[in-house]
# Entry
Amino acid sequence: MESKKSNTKRYGLIGRNIAYSFSRGYFKQKFETENLQNCSYENFDLEQIEALKNVFIQKNISGLNVTTPYKREVVPFLDLLSPTAAEMNAVNTIKFHQDGSISGHNTDVYGFEKSLLEIINNFPKKALILGTGGASSAVAYVMKKLNIEFSYVSRSAKENTIQYEAVDETIMDEHHLIINASPVGTFPNIEAVPNLPYSLLTQDHVLYDLIYNPPETRFLREGKQRGCKILNGLKMLEYQAKKSWEVWNQ
# Structure
């Protein structure tokens, strides 16, 4: 038994309050389906990012995912970043190399782009990104790649950022893609919703919520009721998880 334990490749998720996490269930099922008996996946629920050092020194850590609120805070703890992660200054996948170095990658970009392209045929000219945290970095990266102009929406005024109360009919009419990259509406606060004028939504709008728990947030329901095309974050998570596995094992 001890020998089996010592040979186990340990993967896991770094975050805070992550008992609900998708990743652990996804990889547990993957290991069972593919009969990968020497692999495990666990949650590392950290109150402060400084505790990451204690995870790094544990035995047999073979790869880590990173979620809210640490996608940017992990960067100083890493030796190098992939070009994509460096440009975004956000990491959701950590790889441990044989030479002892630790690198940061971002597979959220792949997951978001692939899932988005499955629901839109004609690219809108402009998009709104709700929230300015680590998750919004992947969305912005993909918007740039697809040549979609975008503005952030936040409670506070910043560069290229619209305050929620300033979103009016003109802005809603010009921005037909709206992505919720904020945690507003996540379980258990399922009735919370970003402060937008939902009555101005039309069938031309696409609403994408990076949240997957609950599967249909109030944000998405508001769009659905008005004929918008909607999608939650589950597909993005599945695609980014597959890509993380490739990063760890390439």
